[in-house]
């Protein structure tokens, strides 16, 4: 299991270095962004770490398998779930807003972000799909999760991975809006949402037999519906509550061993497929 420590070290190092112009000023060090969408490029760290670790420990066969899983769209039902479930969360969040706040959110702004006003819905989706959908999921679910599930149940593997996934975000607390304003209670709630999200990603990964396309689509579309400007600041909270609730339901319905119908995807099953 030497590959996992190397992977986590690479994922943290690459992302934190790419984010360094953004978080160094918090510590009084003058630095300027040198890339457009600098924060987005930092999201590529886990993916780059996965490819480097695969090349180092598994060679050409490992790289080919990782590449193949980037575009694995079958079983089709899981691809459909990844695409439509985030919009279900958004619509249900809208109903919660209607009954709690007295008005529906402005869904005409779906797919638009105040942070990137120059991007239309396609551009905003591609931004999230490339930098955070594939950027994160190729690493966390594509490389780390199967190796953790080799020796642990799906839930235990998810909890372990959630610690490293949360730790990877630490520089964001120095510069990222929404993170910098968190108190201890907010940070605890955020970590719980990481765990709940991790349960959903394990459910999708195991249910889809290891599809990184499914995980990347769900990650990107969830970010899109979560970060849109709806004209209601509570929508993020409502959608977050629904994601957490679905994570709990997944655990209750499918159980902690696999978190999905069928077997959990481990590095052993990946080896079988390569053979």
Descriptive account of the structure:
By secondary structure, the chain is mainly α. The protein has one domain (3-274). The protein is 68% helix and 0% strand. The protein contains eleven helices and no strands. The protein has helices at residues 3-23, 38-42, 45-57, 59-69, 76-101, 121-148, 154-168, 184-207, 212-227, 235-254, 267-274. The longest helix is centred in the middle third of the chain and has 28 residues, at 121-148. The model has no long low-confidence stretch (mean pLDDT 90).
List keywords for this structure.
globular, 275 residues, mainly alpha
Kindly name the structural category.
mainly alpha
- The CA-CA distance between the termini, in Å, is 20 Å
- Give the C-alpha Rg: 18 Å
Question: What is the overall number of helices?
Answer: 11
Helix content: 55-70%
Shape: globular
The major β-sheet equals: none
- Beta-strand proportion: under 5%
What average pLDDT do the residues reach?
90
SSE string, helices as H and strands as E: HHHHHHHHHHH
Low-confidence stretches: none
The tally of beta strands, per DSSP, is 0
Can you tell me the number of structural domains?
1
């Amino acid at each position: 299991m030497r590959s996992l420590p190397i992977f986590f070290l690479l994922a943290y190092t690459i992302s934190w270095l790419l984010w360094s112009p953004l978080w160094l000023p918090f510590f009084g060090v003058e630095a300027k962004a040198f890339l457009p969408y600098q924060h987005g490029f930092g999201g590529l760290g886990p993916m780059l770490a996965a490819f480097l670790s695969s090349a180092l420990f598994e060679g050409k066969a490992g790289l080919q398998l990782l590449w193949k899983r980037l575009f694995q769209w079958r079983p089709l039902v899981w691809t459909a779930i990844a695409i439509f479930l985030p919009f279900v969360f958004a619509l249900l969040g809208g109903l919660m807003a209607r009954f709690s706040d007295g008005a529906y959110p402005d869904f005409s702004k779906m797919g638009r972000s105040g942070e990137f006003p120059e991007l239309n819905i396609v551009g905003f989706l591609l931004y999230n799909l490339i930098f955070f959908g594939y950027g994160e999921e190729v690493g966390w679910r594509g490389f780390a999760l199967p190796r953790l599930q080799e020796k642990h149940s799906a839930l235990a593997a998810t909890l372990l991975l959630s610690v490293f996934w949360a730790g990877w975000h630490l520089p964001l607390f120095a510069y990222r809006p929404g993170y910098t304003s968190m108190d201890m209670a907010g940070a605890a709630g955020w970590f719980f949402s990481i765990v709940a999200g991790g349960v959903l990603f394990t459910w999708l990964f195991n249910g889809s037999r290891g599809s990184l396309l499914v995980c990347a689509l769900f990650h990107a579309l969830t970010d899109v519906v979560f970060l849109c400007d709806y004209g209601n600041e509570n929508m993020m909270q409502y959608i977050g509550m629904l994601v957490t609730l679905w994570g709990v339901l997944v655990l209750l319905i499918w159980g902690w061993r696999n978190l999905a119908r069928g077997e959990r995807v481990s590095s052993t099953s990946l080896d079988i497929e390569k053979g």
